[in-house]
Amino acid sequence: MFLLGLFGLAAMGGAAYAISDVFSGDEDEDNDDVIEEDAVEDIPEGNLLEIDDFFEDPAEAEDASHETILSDVDGNLVIAGGPGVDNLSGAEGNDQINGYDGGDIIDGGAGDDTLFGADWDDTLNGNTGDDILHGGNGHDDLSGNAGDDILYGHAGDDQLVGGEGDDDLYGGQGNDNLAGGEGEDALQGGDGEDMLAGGAGEDTLFGGDGDDTLSGQDDGDTPASDFLNGGAGDDTILAGAGDVVTGGQGADQIAIDGTATGKEVSVVDFIPGEDKLLIEWNGPDAPEIGIEQDADNADLTRVLVNGREVAHLFGAQGLGPEDIQLTPGLDPTLTSPTG
């Protein structure tokens, strides 16, 4: 299911529109052509044309830089861009848009859309609906917005933002930034040193290979618990109240807000001497840190801050003060995508 027909261009049901051979707009100062709305209305169903088809000399297509705007068209669009195509926009149906070469800006519009970038640095916006976005190669910005979206960064250092809805985000190769937004999201970093932030809702985060940073602390006022798994590598995991943490292979740092209220954090594979527990504390006076071994469960160690339980560590027999550090609050801020 991972590829979902990568670079497939079959029509998706309903009317299949394509860019016509009528460039009805005037060139602007940047030599950008604008395809007007009425240029696509009379195309027979089932036609799929590429912008390359409108140049007799392939070199002209290679050198051309065009801005394509499609909107307010009924039906499901199948749009194939080409070299030098900058902007592609869908309509209200379930559209399939492929940017191919060039640094493309693609907006699916309303409907359940499938958007493909390619080898350049692309910006893909699913807009409303349950969308599927593929960044391809390059350093891509993908934004699902409203709806239950699936975002694939693939190769390159990508930025994926799910937005509203229950989203699935896959970074792939490269050092990626993933932000789930609202809803119950699933984030997977893949290879590289990735940064994952679940956002509001009960989220599942898996860092994958590499030294990753995972955050379940930005839930706002929601009481939802997150599931955070660093995977292989020396990871930094910022856990919120009620979160369940698996550090995975490597020497991991698990940070807990010492001032937060709510249910304690559970760490299922803490290894003293290898992993570190960081207590985030910004108060003027250092708190009192307590370590208690459970009398009935030898595998359970409780960590207390000023007498209040903040963490349950499993497999942490022999935990000592040297395994716990006070630190200022950590903030793995993600930059919102442009476009």
UniProtKB/TrEMBL annotation:
It comes from the Bacteria. One of its GO terms (molecular function) is calcium ion binding. Residues 155-225 are annotated as: Disordered. GO terms for cellular component: extracellular region. The keyword Chaperone does not apply. PROSITE patterns: HEMOLYSIN_CALCIUM. Residues 1-18 form the signal peptide. Gene3D superfamilies: Serralysin-like metalloprotease, C-terminal. Transmembrane segments: none annotated. It is found in: Secreted. Keywords: Secreted, Signal. The keyword Cell division does not apply. This is RTX-I toxin determinant A from serotypes 1/9. It comes from Ruegeria arenilitoris. The gene is apxIA.
